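Students often ask why inverse folding is considered easier than folding. One informal answer: many sequences map to the same fold, so there is more than one right answer. In these notes we will look at a single instance of the problem. The structure comes first.
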């Protein structure tokens, strides 16, 4: 039986579509590999690729994509709304079919080791692959961002798992195994970033909010609005509708409204089903009632 692992690499390029396409080309037309989705955002200056495949094919494609990103992206001139520390900022592996978290952890270690040996890009292992408890949370690893990373990795506490020299052009990459994550953003009808930051503080776990929510305020300058940008790290325990309703409530305190939301990348079907159940008040709903679930069998 085929082993399938999902990977969602994030690259620090969201403005030059030619560069994005060249990076994504590494995932196209490959045996035992399927490119599911890729999206980019100019304000974040970031692209997110979603690909699934057998471990060896996935490993090869990811390493080649990092090489392309290293050639095309110069972090010394990079700027964007999203926190970042490298040209290839983060590479998560997620078990999908006939695979375990342990296999994803092993794959992450193999990839991290090769990125250093082949490209001299320092690598941190994070989430379930983390070599120490203080390295599990990606935001803690990324704190200081690219600009502060050269100094940070000299500290004993923050020495990379692979590599010991800062790569000035490509920065640092985080590689790890994790559970499915939903990138969920809520837009507000104001250009005041302070309001988005204050609301983010109310909903994110680190500030006393929802346990499985990471959040920050982001400016969407081309639209003249701001958003609460979230990573929902376990949608089964903190549902999308919970943070959405909390943001609506907090927005009223500041005299602003929610004007929309977005999903970045792919989303597990049940994350949306849970939200539909809540808003429609559906009783005793079962996943077997979803037509597409039978078509996929």
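Output (designed amino acids):
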């Amino acid at each position: 039986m085929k082993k399938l692992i999902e990977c969602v690499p994030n690259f620090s390029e969201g403005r030059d579509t030619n560069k994005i396409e060249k990076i994504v080309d590494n995932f196209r037309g490959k045996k035992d590999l399927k490119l599911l989705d890729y999206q980019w955002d100019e304000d974040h200056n970031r692209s997110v690729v979603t690909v699934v495949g057998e471990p060896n094919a996935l490993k090869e494609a990811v390493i080649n994509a990092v090489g392309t990103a290293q050639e095309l992206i110069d972090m010394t001139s990079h700027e964007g709304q999203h926190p970042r520390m490298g040209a290839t900022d983060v590479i998560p592996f997620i078990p999908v079919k006939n695979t375990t978290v342990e296999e994803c952890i092993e794959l992450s270690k193999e990839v991290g080791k090769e990125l250093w040996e082949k490209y001299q890009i320092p690598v941190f292992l994070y989430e379930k692959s983390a070599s120490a408890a203080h390295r599990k949370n990606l935001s803690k690893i990324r704190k200081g961002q690219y600009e502060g990373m050269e100094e940070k990795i000299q500290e004993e506490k923050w020495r990379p798992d692979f590599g010991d020299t800062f790569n000035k052009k490509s920065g640092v990459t985080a590689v790890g195994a994790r559970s499915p994550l939903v990138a969920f953003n809520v837009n507000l009808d104001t250009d005041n970033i302070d309001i988005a930051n204050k609301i983010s503080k109310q909903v994110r776990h680190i500030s006393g909010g929802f346990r499985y929510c990471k959040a920050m305020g982001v400016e969407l300058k081309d639209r003249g609005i701001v958003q609460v940008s979230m990573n929902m790290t376990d949608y089964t325990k903190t549902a999308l509708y919970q943070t959405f309703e909390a943001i609506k409530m907090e927005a009223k305190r500041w005299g602003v409204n929610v004007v929309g939301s977005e999903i970045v990348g792919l989303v597990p079907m049940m994350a949306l089903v849970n939200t539909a159940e809540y808003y429609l008040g559906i009783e005793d709903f079962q996943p077997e009632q979803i037509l597409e679930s039978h078509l996929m069998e």
